[in-house]
Amino acid sequence: MERGRPGTGFAKPYSFVLQRDRRGDMFKKLFGIKAKETPDNKRAMARVAIPGLEAKLEGKVQVFGVRDLSPSGIGLAGGLAAFRQGMTIGLTLFLRGRLLLSGVHVQIMRIGKGFVGCQFTNLDRQGIKVLHEVVLLEQKRLADIKKKEREKESMR
């Protein structure tokens, strides 16, 4: 495994991210699907939709739903018409009403119908670790659901 700073023993935060040429095989094995790579869906990291995940933006009273999350970015759902591409905003993430991550800044990268795609700009090691763990736990949960569905199908 590639290491971070010499003598720290910490792995680089993104060292376990899958290579693009292997990603389709991993998805097929875990989820029974093949990821097709097109210019529209190339991603540096896996994204997951996590039930109960919400974002509170600095200077806003409203809490926004989170459409999807990855260790490198977040997709916000809802009325974000006041924001423009390139803006940097602060946010706090809540999972089922409990604080998950605060003091995070994101840059708005893409605005679509009903959602805004943002990239994290100031994550420290702890923030990166939290996001990786949350995404990984959700991937495991989804894999377990898929496995149980396959087992039910094979029992019929």
Give a written overview of the molecule.
28% of the residues lie in helices and 30% in strands. Residues 1-28 and 33-40 have low confidence and may be disordered. The N and C termini lie far apart (43 Å). It contains 2 helices and 6 strands; from the N terminus they run αββββββα. The chain folds into 2 domains: 16-45, no CATH class; 46-155, predicted glycosyltransferase like domains (Thrombin, subunit H, Beta Barrel). The protein is an alpha+beta fold and 156 residues long.
Question: CATH homologous superfamily name of the largest domain?
Answer: predicted glycosyltransferase like domains
Helix content: 25-40%
| Beta-strand percentage range | 25-35%
Q: Look at the helices and sheets and give the structural class.
A: alpha+beta
